[in-house]
Amino acid sequence: MRFKAILFHFLVMSFMAAWPAAAQQPIQLVGFGDSLMAGYQLAPSESYTAQLETALQAKGHDVVVTNAGVSGDTTSGGLSRVDWSVPDGTDGVILELGANDALRGISPDETEKNLDAIISRLKERNIPVLLAGMMAPPNMGSAYSERYNEIYPRLAEKHDVPLYPFFLDGVVAVAGTQLEDGMHPNAKGVGIMVERSLPAVEAFLGDIRTSGK
């Protein structure tokens, strides 16, 4: 009996040692963006990253979603801080930037150049990216909007990264989902954003697990 107990203990310890360490650790996601990611005027628990983490964990995913959103950030600002805002050990990034570029009328060429560089830097670090798209506000005019709205699909195709087409889907111009400024989502609006984007994020998690991250 003593020999069997020792043998069983040895087999268990061998199995634990052989089990991939990554499988025992939660997947580390980072939401990298502007005020829409940061949770402008919302409690920390009401932000997109917080509500997304709760929704994913409720569906059985062992995941931590860190908020690296900075209100007012442009793609240029994001590029300047991506190396230190996304820490080593990050398994995936949800990249949401560009809304402030459009509001400021920044050239779509410049926006695309910056996003291209951000994605490239993350790929160089072997960090997968889920690109969250934006759409230019109508008051920018059709010519600007057409150029701007093509940025995200083109970058997703170029870098072969998944695209969630419109981060504010279900919230724009929907009564009761925005703050008084008519631009930022309230807690209810963020909940809608999480619900709509959840399938894309779950597919992203599947890609991360498949890649062995």
Write a brief caption for the model.
This protein has 213 residues and is of the alpha/beta class.
Features of the shown structure:
5-stranded parallel beta sheet, 213 residues, alpha/beta, single chain
3D architecture notes:
With 213 residues, the chain is α/β, with parallel strands linked by helices. Helices cover 50% and strands 12% of the residues. It has nine helices and five strands. It has helices at 2-18, 35-38, 48-58, 75-85, 99-103, 108-124, 142-149, 151-159, 187-210; strands spanning 27-33, 63-69, 92-96, 129-132, 163-164. The protein has a five-stranded parallel beta sheet, sandwiched between helices.
The arrangement of helices and strands along the chain is HEHHEHEHHEHHEH
Average of per-residue pLDDT values: 91
Q: Please list the strands of the largest sheet in the order they lie side by side.
A: 2-1-3-4-5
Helix content: 40-55%
Strand content: 5-15%
> What would the principal axes of the Cα set say about the shape?
globular
Distance between the termini: 41 Å
Please work out how many helical segments DSSP would assign. Answer: 9
What value does the Rg take, in angstroms? Answer: 20 Å
Low-confidence blocks of residues: 15-22
Structural class: alpha/beta
Topology of this structure?
Elements: H1 2-18, E1 27-33, H2 35-38, H3 48-58, E2 63-69, H4 75-85, E3 92-96, H5 99-103, H6 108-124, E4 129-132, H7 142-149, H8 151-159, E5 163-164, H9 187-210
Parallel strand pairs: 1-2, 1-3, 3-4, 4-5
